[in-house]
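Standup notes
- DV: blocked on the single-chain target, sequence here:
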Amino acid sequence: MGLWNWLRTGEWEPADGEERELARVDIGAAFDEHIAATSRGEAVLPAVFRARQFLADTVASLSLDEVDERTGLVTGTTPTLLRSPSPFETYHEFMHKTVNSLTGRGNAYWRIISRDAQDRPSALDVLNPDEVTVTWDRNRIFPEYRWRGQPMRRDRDIIHIPLFLVPGDPVGKSPIEIARIALEAAEAEQDFHRSLFRDNATPTGIIQVQDKTQAEVDEIQKRIDEKAKEGKRLPRVMSNATFQQITINPADAQFLEARHFSVQEVARLFGIPGLFLGVTTGDSLTYSTTESLFRLFVTGTLRPTYLERIEQAFTRLLVRGKAARFNISELLRADIKARYEAYQIGLASGFLTKNEVRRDEGLPPIAGGDEVPDTQPAPSEVANA
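- DV (later): unblocked, structure below
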């Protein structure tokens, strides 16, 4: 029994005396092995890889700001912990590993490797989820952590970010684990396509020869089979004189429909619009609708599922009263025409200044640009009214 039995049946039966290591029981490990084994010809799910890469790259491209929890305003000074959490890698690499841990294992773990003079964490390291084990304490109240066999205190030595938590389980579940059956079906569909087309399951046609003995027909077939060993899909020989091509009816096999459906399932699984994985629902898409899809992705999946979890983990490490917030303005940035129209309304209404507009557009301030436009009606206008 063990991991592979769990992948097939969903049941886990540890050996006698073995304590279940919850963080290791994850189908994400199996699929990561598939992705890493492409060169060996094993089955892979490119849509799963692309979905995870898309999420990780998107989050890693966002910067973190420190804000005042009372006012919600950016403090203007970003702590080093938010600009460069790890001394061993770049900010992008740190975030990329964190999100990949969440999508593949359902859990991300940060090790606190140093503290400042005020005993606040000053540097972190993203741990391999497979090297972290989580078990209940003897009273099944608090989770206990070990990294490479070494005890770790939560929020003191290690920060745990779970993705999908269920009551009674101290570790999160990944989208891959939750949708195990759907992904196994998609993998089986890919295996079928591979065996059908790459493994020569169907000949290209039949050659029918006349006036040949069976021994001569067998000899011709033998020579063709020898060529087939070179990886070519060749016809079969029979005892008449015509060639009959053999084809597979795509409408019957529904190959394209099956592949399309599999990618749509992966997109739904990760909460990503199918457009970002190269599939659509068949509807006509315009610039405005694709922009709406991206906004829906940000507000419906990216922020509640990933950004808020990471923000709250960083907030626990900051000074009391301060919070970490991802800057998502670029993701929600409208097209240039819509932005300029909004700026015009803001300037005319008096709640935006010229320098605030220029700052949002990445332009330097100008003299007098901080003055709030006077939007009050002139006395003559009041009298005439």
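- Follow-up: The two ends are 86 Å apart (CA to CA).
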